[in-house]
Predict the 3D structure of the following.
Amino acid sequence: MLKLVKYLRGYTKESILAPLFKLLEASFELLVPLVMAGIIDHGIAQENTAYIVRMGAVLVGLAIVGLCSAITAQYFSAKAAAGFGTALRDDLFRHILGFSHAETDLLGRDTLTTRMTNDTNQIQAGVNLFFRLVLRSPFIVFGALVMSFSIDVRESLIFVVVIALLAVIVASIMGQTVKMYKQVQKRLDDVLGQTSENLTGVRVIRAFSRQSDEISTYKDRTQNLSDMQIHVGNLSALMNPLTYVVINLGIVAILKTGSVKVNVGTLTQGEVVALVNYMSQILVELVKVANLIINMSKASACARRVNEVFAIQNSLVDGKEDALQSWDSAKEEAVICFKDVNFSYPNAGADALEEINFSVNKGQMIGVIGGTGSGKSTLVNLIPRFYDVRQGEVEIAGKNVKEYSLSSLRRLIGIVEQKSRLFKGSIRSNLLWGDEQATDEQMNRAASIAQAAEVINKKEGRLDEP
């Protein structure tokens, strides 16, 4: 998580002010029980209406100032968290776009999508909650303990015991749930991967009548995810009842011992009410602390997954030569050459291509024929350097493709994939991917070559049709 703190660089002011305003709100909240004790002991007991009105106005003032502090803190924490999330997603997206196909295949497209969306959202939510509670909740818990000591030292020992028991409960439950949340994220990846795989290969599944098998596999994975989420939820759900039992026992102890002291005159009724209020404040804040720990555990697990992506570097070393210039000045008859090429996919047990040798001359049109999985697409993917060969060389215009810059190499090569992909926008915006400066005439000519002109011309907006 600490490795991602750099994305808060532009929000230093908000990162400082958000907890401080929450601390200010907490300070006012700690004063409320004392004011209430004064109203009971000096106002109600002595029938002093003026004092009650005056202290009532103080309570209203504390509430208004506390509300303003809370709203201000919420604004700064939300701004910092949103800016953090935006910067993190932008950098992660930029980093992923720099991957070669080898890195993308190694992690998997589905888990990359999950890490860039769900994981970054969890981290952002954790940062937001951290700013709001990191100072407030501990301050109120220990502040309530200190205030109880100022009222009665012996009664405050009940607070010490209660806080110790609550700390043990929270630590025990959190220690188990933190590990389980990692498993939840892993199983979520499995479900998303299965979903994407089925949607991508739906035709193959139908062709081989594998629908029932895939449905069964999907149900198993979703059931595994559901079981783990329910298990974690049940364990986390123990937090509230256990903490309420301990707090209520503490309140009973305060009322029991406090009533005796009120009877003998060593403690006032207002002070007993103040002690009960401080105990209630501790309950509320410890529940918030538990919620903070749960969310920070999720955020920490997600941060580790995001850092795993950042730790992976592009295996392709960019060259410096301009492929377009080399192509224009090429004198060789053979413009594409494969020389003793061997290639294997990441973590594969065997080579997908072995000892490939051939050349393609200028103006020559060739077709590569082979069965499914024989390596036709793999062979083509080596030309624009989507992958690097394990052994041998792929040459274009007499030079190894590794010598060319990736941008110039890929501007030189046109690719039509087996399955067309369209990006959100208009027909024009999709055509401009090939050349941002293309004119309407050039785009219409390209559409004509691709046998798409007739379809486009039937559209009302033609090139500007969504």
Observations:
- The CA atoms of residues 26 and 142 lie 11 Å apart.
- The chain has a mean pLDDT of 83.
- The first strand starts at residue 334 and ends at 343.
- Residues 427-464 form one domain.
